[in-house]
Each structure stands twice: as structure tokens, then as C-alpha cells.
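Our consortium's second objective concerns turning raw sequence data into structural hypotheses that experimental partners can test. To show how far this objective has progressed, the report includes one record in full. It was chosen at random from the queue rather than selected for favorable results. The single chain below, 149 residues long, was entered without modification.
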Amino acid sequence: MKISIACDHGGFLLKETVKKWLTDNNYEVLDFGCDSLDSIDYPDYGVKAARAVKNHECDKGIVICTTGIGMSIVANKVRGIRCALVSDLVSAEMTRLHNDTNMLALGAKIVSEELALNIIKVWLETEFEGGRHIRRVEKISKIEVEENE
């Protein structure tokens, strides 16, 4: 599975940890930056990771900033992206089971490295439940199209 990843300066250190964990666990990683602790504008990086998922260059994506809020907003502006900001294991599982999210946002000042890696593990290993949730995800997609006409 190929994962896009991006961060801002506030998420740089956690991104590097996540990238190593993903690689060590046999995931292919496409890193869209940033590449240091120098201040940058998160939308410039988050949108690249989201577009890689939208365009099927990557299967899923992970974006990280200080709180995860900004990056999740950016990712969700890209048509076809369902990005969830997650800070606990229950949400990590449910957002895959019920919402079929294709991107995950994390806050580097909100979750510890250990919790972040556990969230990612649960999120990546949980399959979409389908069933009644299909029509709900389809309704989300319909809203997205209507709002962008």
C-alpha cells in the first residue's frame, strides 16, 4: 500500500517518526514535505498529499500539523477526499468502518508519538464496513459535487 504524507513545521518531527514506522512496516511512502522545522504554509503541502490520493497515485494519505485542524481542512477541500482528524483509537477505527476515510490528520501537539503510531496502525488495518454506510458515504460525495458546481 502506498501512503502520501505531508506536514508543516509543527508536524515535521512526528512526520519523520511516522514515515520511518510506515517504511519499517512495508508501506511505500510518498513524502510531500515539509523537510525541516522552518516555518512554512501548511496548505502548500497538505494539498499535494491529498491530490496524490485523489489522483490514485497513493492509496491513502496522512497529514500532520500542530493540531491537525489546518491540515484536515486543506485535505477535505480536495474533491474525493474524506480526511478525519483523529486523536483516539476508537475514532481511528470508526472513521474507517463507517466513513471509509482515505486520509488521516494528526496533531503533533495533541497525540504522543506512541498514540499516533497506534492510531495509524488501527486506521490502516481497519476495512470499510460497507452496508448501510455505503449510501451515507455516497450522500457525502453527492454534497461535495453539488457544492462545487
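The partners drew two points from this record. The beta strands are 2-7, 28-31, 60-65, 83-85, 103-107. The helical segments are 12-24, 42-54, 69-76, 89-97, 113-125, 132-147. Both points have been shared with the crystallography group to help prioritize constructs.
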